[in-house]
Amino acid sequence: MTLVNLNDVLLDAKKRSYAVGAFNFTDISTARGIVSAAEKLNAPVVLQFAQSHLPYMSLEEVGINAIQLAKKASVPVVVHLDHGEDVATAMKALKMGFSSVMLDFSLKPFKENVKATKEVVEIAHDLGASVEGEIGVMTRDDGEGMPDYSHLTDKYTKVEDAKRFYDLTHVDALAVSFGTVHGIYREKPHLNFERLHEISEALPIPLVMHGGSGLSDEEYRESIKNGITKINYYSVMSFNVVNGLRDYLNARRDKQTFLYDCDMEVIRLVEEDLMKKIKIFGSTDTALVAK
Ligand code: 13P
């Protein structure tokens, strides 16, 4: 199919209560694995690249390769900048042809978040692209004594803030905080489905889950039931692929192994991991109606 924006895939997901997988990549093999997992299940997909990963690939490399992959794909693919940290980078991505960007000013004051997001929304909509914003605080568990989960409840997105933010910016999708964190959970997360449901009832746009790694199948399903239509998932896939590659290399100790053998194995491992997620998210066979 082709390059599409978030509205092209998330509005149907919201209407029919499933979620589109949004998967991060930092190299071409992973990007290929993401698209081919979606193709194998006839599912739309968000191929996303986080600004914090720019040390591993330039925006130009990401843009050229991801847009080309999307255009050749047999399913709708959104090429999305994840966690855009400044307006200039979001604008650069839009001008390069990304079909979607996220501006994450969630840690900045509300007014500043609104002003910057609105600026990006105006340009993006003129170009036919979509924008994801974020309201609420999402932390990261990087194994360095972070975080104390008991404080997280204070940081959940408030319904009034989400509504006010949408009214002022007209973002196409909103990332909300209801108990997920980026990275690996060291304790069981406490997801506030009630709050998520209230936000979903108050807003006409699709809601986004960040920190999709480490949840149970039931937690994914319950999140979708309560309004999540885009699930960002990366860390667990990344660890599963690295572990799989280690096993692959150990099993081939006595054989000649070229770099392209590793690339092909990475593609296979990414596909294997993401196909399981796409099935749980319920987006299998939704590609034709998504556009
Ligand atoms: P995880 O790495 O926790 O799955 O989160 C991914 C994410 O939210 C990217 O924006």
Description:
The protein has 291 residues and is an alpha/beta fold. It has one domain: Alpha-Beta Barrel (TIM Barrel), CATH 3.20.20. It is 48% helix and 16% strand. The strands form 2 sheets. It has an 8-stranded parallel beta barrel, surrounded by 9 helices. Helix 2 (28-40) runs parallel beside helix 3 and helix 2 packs across helix 10. The longest helix is centred in the last third of the chain and has 23 residues, at 259-281. The termini are close together. The mean pLDDT is 93. It binds 1,3-dihydroxyacetonephosphate. 1,3-dihydroxyacetonephosphate is lined by residues 24, 82-83, 182-183, 210-213, 232-235.
Topology:
Blueprint lengths: L5 H11 L3 E5 L3 H13 L4 E6 L8 H14 L4 E8 L2 H10 L3 E4 L6 H17 L3 E6 L4 E2 L17 H11 L3 E4 L5 E2 L9 H10 L4 E3 L7 H9 L2 E6 L1 H17 L7 H23 L5 H4 L1
Parallel strand pairs: 1-2, 1-10, 2-3, 3-4, 4-5, 5-7, 6-8, 7-9, 9-10
Helix pairs in contact: 2-3, 2-10, 4-5, 6-7, 9-10
The structure holds 1,3-dihydroxyacetonephosphate.
The site of 1,3-dihydroxyacetonephosphate has 13 residues, from β3, β8 and β10.
